[in-house]
Amino acid sequence: MSAGEEGEYYVARQLRRLNDSKFFVINDLLFRKRNGFTNQIDHLVVSPYGVFVIETKNIYGYIHGADKSKLWRSYWRDGRDLAFDNPVLQNEAHIMALEERLGVGRQIPYYSIIAFSPTADLQVNVSNADVIYWTQIRQLVRAYKEPVMSIEEARSLYEEIIALNITDPEVRSTHGQYANARKVEFKRRTDNALDNGKCPKCGGNLVRRTGTYGAFYGCSNYPNCKYTHPAY
Ligand SMILES: [Zn+2]
Predict the structure, then answer these.
(1) How far is the CA of 203 from the centre of ligand 1 (A)?
(2) How much distance in Å is there from the Cα of 189 to the middle of ligand 1?
(3) Is CB count within 10 Å lower at the N or C end of the chain?
(4) CA distances (Å), 9 to each of 21, 56, 87, in order?
(5) pLDDT tens across 58-108, in order?
């Protein structure tokens, strides 16, 4: 099992323990966006309280991130660190794509949840999503107590979403390969650039600087390029 699969497996197991007469769970939803591209959502819970859209992250280290920053970063104890796509923005894009398929203006509340592995130490500054640990998922979903639709309406919305799910194994495997290749390529390019002392964004030289929060590497093309990387 890959790290990502492990997370999805764990969260799916937690969600199975919700009351299934009113919480309708969909794991690994793959659907077509209006523009024809495919989009994958780790988990959805459709309920009378709204639709919970859950992105799982299996990551080590201190996690730093904010609502709008393009990248988040995890800092490991051995001094290395890793940038990854901001999951709050990713999940917002998932929700928007789903809403476009279901019809905008239907007054369905969507709740964005980013669920991290317990190996992460969350130090994020976020208000556009609930950023929690896997173990807190049911507690969080159950904390929403204000119904916005009937159980029957929730069930039919669930069926509407299930009908969007792509089951064709060929389309599914193409989506997976594309997503993985993109991640691997991104990490490889960043690591290579940093090893060579080059800015991974523009190829400029990285220059050691000292700022308010200590030493860091900045791009020699600043202010045109604002890339920075922590120094140790
Ligand atoms: Zn640069």
Answers:
(1) 6
(2) 13
(3) N
(4) 22, 10, 18
(5) 888 899 999 999 999 998 877 778 888 999 999 999 999 999 999 988 889
On whether the CB atoms of residues 113 and 44 are closer than 8 A, the answer is no
Q: How far apart are CA 52 and CA 25, in angstroms?
A: 9
The residue among 152 and 193 whose pLDDT is bigger is 152
Distance 102 CA to ligand 1 centre (A): 40
Q: Give all domains of the chain, ordered by start, each with its CATH number.
A: 3-172 (3.40.1350), 187-230 (no CATH)
Mean pLDDT (the chain, rounded): 89
How far is CA 59 from its chain centroid?
Answer: 12
CA atoms of 95 and 45, how far apart (whole Å): 13
Alpha carbon of 84 to ligand 1 centroid (Å): 18
